[in-house]
């Protein structure tokens, strides 16, 4: 056999035991007439000691890094123990070795502190996966997968596969499409999620379904987005929102315990979408720290009376003015405040500038706009912002949407500067009561905030059925009843990242047709796209709801990384390209002809 033990297995209790190991050569160190080799496999590293005779043999059979070898020998106690590895107390006195396969010189050093940049490591990803740092990420991914399956199995969920070749329904993100050779001129789409299939499974009576499943969206990429990604996809029948929240709080807490040995004992906090936007500037707030937003002026209306008689044009002309108080930063220097001003002016933030008030520890106040406000007015400013002596109040003014996003980004930036976002601290949050619709000003129509199968809150159903969704004046959309309808939807947030989202679904044909109509679909269009689902609702569809968790993102957060690519064995780059296998790529003319496709590359 190639091995009797792994390279991470042997300990002092194996002393004098004859063993056979196999793996990759990590390092070779010659000391006169003897040679030390670190042999590596998936399980760890074991030091090998080659005597004088075998060292001489190396002259005729040279070894290099990443050679695959097998060795036989006896377990011995090391004289120079290595406390940094589990096998550091022992070594193997090698009696014979054999080269199973040679290796070319690797394009980068295969160790944790590698000299390879991301581009070269992605090109040779099969080598990068040998590194211990990457291996730990892949093992963590498996542990999260196993923990989720264990929990769902214990809760009587059943894993059911759904198709990858489905009908294209281009709502929301763009579909990846697949031409059908046997059905000329027609195309499949790869699923953005198994949404309609899991609802059909509820109609079929499978009241607790799950999949850990691949999904596909043709979107522009970033660190936390890939064209193909994985969801923990779940659905339940005869449930309301509270049932869903309790069930999946339990799942995430179970994952914390099994994967990170964390007992998350407290009840998961809940927050309405409106409160999240009002207090934190976004619908996935990081609640590991406070730093709430003060809403001084919103959509042209002053909430802080101290602005009523201001002569400061920047404030008077702004649609929205928001502020945050940063504790312990009143001693910021001119250089530091200038850095913050330049930070908010960056294109990705997009603000024209930043105003500030220093609330000094002696109680005095100094602002960047002292010319327009006296000491008493600045004190009122500080009180409205709930600032304390020693705080630095940062103020942004501008258009509502941009300013709220910018203050949210600034809040996170300052938290990073102050060390308030600790990677080993985990805080969960449920965000509920989302708007059911968003208004698309360009198209002058309502679009679904989540997806068109989300049910409105029960008290809002009659509003949706009884009102015409058309808007005569685009500036008046906030006055339309549709803007007030709340979705029976919920998101789970972990450390400022949305890790899961779901809703109670529509399960009655009439209401689903009204929802499609609200989104501007004709009866013919809704029948063409979703006739199978509407028809299923006529055969005793039960009340149901579910949730889908971003599996890659959950793994990244638990692993302390900003990028989901670190936790995917073979990821794509920011252009959606697999540089290792060079995909996507062209196909030959014969394949195009079989598909009856002609390319127009003008």
Task: Characterise the protein shown here.
The protein is of the alpha+beta class. Among the domains are: 12-101, OB fold (Dihydrolipoamide Acetyltransferase, E2P); 289-421, Gyrase A, domain 2; 435-486 and 508-541, no CATH class. The protein contains 16 helices and 23 strands. The strands form 5 sheets. An 8-stranded mixed sheet has the order 6-9-10-23-22-21-18-11, sandwiched between helices. Strands 13-12-14-17-15-16 form a 6-stranded antiparallel sheet, sandwiched between helices. A 5-stranded mixed beta barrel has the order 1-2-3-5-4. A hairpin with a 7-residue loop joins β7 (177-179) and β8. α4 (132-154) crosses α6 (241-260), α4 (132-154) crosses α15 and α13 runs antiparallel to α14 (523-536). The longest helix has 23 residues, at 132-154. The radius of gyration is 30 Å and the shape is globular. The mean pLDDT is 93.
């Amino acid at each position: 056999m190639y091995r009797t033990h792994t390279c991470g297995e042997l300990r002092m209790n194996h002393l004098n035991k004859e063993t056979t190991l196999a793996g990759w050569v990590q390092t070779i160190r010659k000391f006169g007439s003897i040679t030390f080799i670190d042999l590596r496999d998936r399980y760890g590293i074991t030091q090998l000691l080659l005597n004088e005779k075998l060292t001489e043999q190396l002259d005729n059979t040279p070894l290099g890094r990443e050679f695959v070898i097998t060795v036989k020998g006896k377990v011995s106690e090391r004289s120079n123990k290595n406390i940094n590895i589990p096998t550091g107390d022992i070594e193997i006195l090698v009696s014979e070795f054999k080269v199973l396969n040679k290796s070319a010189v690797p394009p980068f050093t295969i160790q944790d502190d590698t000299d390879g940049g991301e581009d070269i490591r992605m090109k040779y990803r099969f080598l990068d996966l040998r590194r211990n740092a990457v291996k730990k990420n892949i093992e963590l991914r498996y542990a999260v997968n196993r923990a989720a399956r264990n929990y769902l199995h214990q809760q009587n969920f059943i894993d059911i596969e759904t198709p990858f070749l489905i009908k294209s329904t281009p709502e929301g993100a763009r579909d990846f499409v697949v031409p059908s050779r046997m059905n000329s001129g027609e195309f499949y789409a790869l699923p953005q999620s198994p949404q309609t299939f899991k609802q059909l499974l509820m109609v079929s009576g499978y009241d607790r379904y799950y999949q850990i499943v691949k999904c596909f969206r043709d979107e522009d990429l970033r660190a936390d987005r890939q064209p193909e990604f994985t969801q923990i996809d779940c659905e339940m029948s005869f449930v309301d929102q509270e049932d869903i929240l309790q069930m999946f709080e339990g799942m995430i807490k179970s994952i914390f315990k099994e994967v990170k040995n964390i007992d998350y004992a407290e009840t998961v906090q809940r927050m309405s979408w409106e409160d999240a936007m009002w207090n934190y500037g976004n619908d996935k707030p990081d609640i590991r720290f406070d730093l709430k937003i003060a809403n001084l002026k919103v959509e042209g209306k002053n909430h802080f009376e101290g602005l009523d008689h201001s002569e400061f044009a920047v404030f008077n002309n702004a649609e929205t003015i928001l502020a945050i108080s940063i504790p312990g930063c009143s001693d910021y220097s001119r250089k530091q405040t200038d850095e913050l001003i330049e930070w908010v002016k960056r294109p990705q933030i997009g603000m024209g500038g930043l105003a500030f008030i220093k609330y000094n520890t002696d109680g005095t106040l100094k602002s960047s706009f002292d010319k327009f406000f006296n000491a008493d007015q600045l004190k009122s400013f500080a009180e409205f912002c709930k600032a304390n002596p020693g705080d630095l109040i940062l103020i942004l003014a501008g258009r509502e949407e941009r300013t709220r996003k910018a203050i949210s980004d600034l809040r996170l930036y300052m938290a990073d500067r102050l060390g308030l976002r600790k990677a080993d601290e985990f805080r969960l949050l449920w965000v509920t009561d989302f708007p059911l619709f968003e208004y698309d000003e360009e198209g002058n129509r309502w679009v679904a905030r989540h997806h068109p199968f989300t049910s409105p809150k029960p008290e809002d159903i009659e509003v949706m059925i009884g009102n015409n969704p058309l808007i005569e004046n685009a500036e008046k959309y906030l006055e339309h009843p549709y803007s007030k309808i709340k979705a029976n939807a919920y998101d789970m947030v972990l450390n400022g990242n949305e890790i899961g989202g779901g809703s109670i679904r529509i399960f009655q044909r009439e209401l689903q047709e009204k929802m499609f109509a609200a989104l501007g679909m004709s009866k013919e269009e809704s029948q063409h796209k979703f006739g199978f689902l509407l028809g299923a609702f006529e055969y005793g569809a039960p009340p149901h709801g579910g949730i889908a968790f971003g599996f890659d993102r959950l793994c990244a957060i638990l692993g302390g990384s900003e990028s989901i690519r670190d936790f995917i064995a073979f990821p794509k780059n920011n252009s959606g390209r697999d540089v290792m296998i060079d995909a996507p790529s062209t196909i030959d003319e014969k394949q195009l002809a079989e598909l009856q496709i002609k390319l127009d590359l003008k």
